[in-house]
Amino acid sequence: MPRVAIVAALEREVSRLTRTCRRVQQQYEGRSFVFFEQDDAVVVCGGIGLDAARRASEAVIALYRPTLLQSVGFAGALDADLRVGDLFTPSVVIDARDGSRVQIQHKGKDEDKNEDGRREHSLVTFMAVAGAKQKASLSHAYGAKAVDMEAAAVAAAAHAHGIPFSATKVISDDSSFELPEMARFIDSQGRFHTARFAAFVALRPWLWSRVATLANNSRNAAEILGEHLQRFHQELNRESRQASALATEEIAPPAAAAIASRPGGRQ
Does domain 4-260 correspond to CATH entry 3.30.70.260? Predict the structure, then answer.
């Protein structure tokens, strides 16, 4: 069974990792999910929003029994210092529905600090696509540095099952970027209807430049996140091989001793 389950919203966020994975379709509670399996990791792209993320998290926990649940994908910057393509590993995830918080302990780091010794900050999960004004409000209300639409639901599922949780996000739009109208193109299952959105934009030339910028930013962000996930996956495999080698070494001495205890040391 995989040790790590990665929950993303859309496949394009993690396509660099999933393109080398085995694609498996399974049913859970009457819904169909596509899982991407590779070695000690499994990825599920459950859709946009809290409900979709919670369903995907429950499915991957029930079917794969992971020892770590991760929320990965795009996030919008609330802090002007965060730029498109920046990786963000929050120490706190906040659910904007009720203000509840999940503290994240990062392996190998001092509490609340990143690799450079700087304090890490919080990610707030909001219920809708946040434009520039909403981002400013969320920053003021929660002191958060970035916003997404799924992490708090993944964290809640992990907590409910007693599984460690972590989150890695990549900034896909900065704090001042005004996103085009997108909420109407996300259905109740968390699916984004790209063709309908494209038709909507095609009739509104004043949106073309903004949508082109968003598309370019998303591609760049996905590439950076993909590189990070591949490095993480390689490290996971290295740890797994080391653990297997150690287990083999622990088994070998008793076997050698048993052979040596026989007359003449023969088998």
Answer: no
